[in-house]
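Page 42, continued from yesterday. The earlier attempt failed because a stray header line got pasted into the input along with the sequence. Redoing it now with the clean sequence only.
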Amino acid sequence: MNNEEKQAPDTIGSTKNSTNSLSQAEQKMYDDFHKSGISDETIMKYRKAGLLKPFDDYWQLNYPALKENWGTDYSTKRLYKYNKCKYIRPPEQESRIFRPLEVNYESIIDGNLFFVVTEGEKKAIAAAEQGIPTIALSGVYCWKKKPKPPDDKNVGEDIIDNPPDIITDLKEIPLENKTIYLCFDNDVMTKKEVKPHS
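This time it went through. Structure tokens are written below.
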């Protein structure tokens, strides 16, 4: 097993208040989640569910299934050392919706209730922890099966000329007559590849 795949010692009962019992990898993971406003209790919930794991060079968060609270094999890895991409996901798999454990599928499909779509799993967890029904896409392109158009094409024209097939998870959510708030990152107006999706 190489260093990248080495999982940190398991101290699942530990929290930030007992830092002596946290490994270095766990402390890095906790600190990263705390920066997003996520509490120890919520971090523990994901760890006990087997969805969140610390490693020496990254943490890994497996996605819950859309309709049930069991883990899937789709995950995000947050690298501590990186060149271009801080977050990586399985390139061979179709993108998925991240549904926090605090948000149940029934509330998402209820036509009388709104929900929020944000960009990034930690934002969704933090919002759900505050009682806001939120799900996440891992990026603004990740609602479609082919995540990103070629670099040399105009993004808006590419979508109009070649309508993409949406991911399977989105097809499981009835969107007609539903109030949905899209809350992407604050670079939505400055990144040319993001703006057409706003």
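Notes: The chain has six helices and seven strands.
Reminder to self: strip header lines before submitting.
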